[in-house]
Task: structure prediction
Amino acid sequence: MSTKRICLWSGPRNISTALMYSFAQRPDTTVFDEPLYGYYLKQTIAKEYHPGAIEVMNSMECDASKVVDFMMGDFDSEVVFFKNMCHHLLDLDTSFMQDTINLILTRHPAQVITSFSKEIPNPSLLDIGMKTQAELLKELLDRKSHVLVIDSNELLKAPEQYLYLLFSKLNIPFYKEMLSWEIGPKSYDGPWAPHWYSNVHNSTGFQSYEEKALTVPEHLNDLLNEALPYYLELKKHSLTLV
Result:
């Protein structure tokens, strides 16, 4: 069976987990939660401040080449969805993305920074992933790989219509079952879920979009200014309903 491999390349504190839950409702899809997280922690100082880092590294494969071999291996389902954080790539060879459908999930950096700083008080540009996303997009476009950019705010404004458009672009059928899921933890959650997934565990579908004025902590204003040009570049390429 020919399997379609969808790699989501998200930044943190986005709707990536909700999107994974959405894909998991499809009858033709298997989902995997951040298979490169252990590799990222092992290779960076993030292990010193990410909650549960030792448990994560001890519970999953931390050799990136073996993770990629797994992702590109055989599966029984027609579609396989890998939820990834873009910054987990580090210096990994991305040539495998020639054979995957790549979705870059972005969000306004003020929203990302405000949310992320509640868990990690002093995030860096690498932590929030936006520069890495912009660089990955350029790389994928340059070599004409299959890539689409999703702005989470646009998806949340009209989930059904947006997902229908997305799947028409992917040439994969859309299922209305993707719009809701059962409350609570999931069997496919990563071991870090207790630290990060409390909001999505209390959800049964995509949250309603609300326009909010966000105030980034003052000490992170420089980070916002650094990240904003990368977001605006990603936004130029994002899928929109209008």
Summary: DSSP finds twelve helices and five strands in the chain.
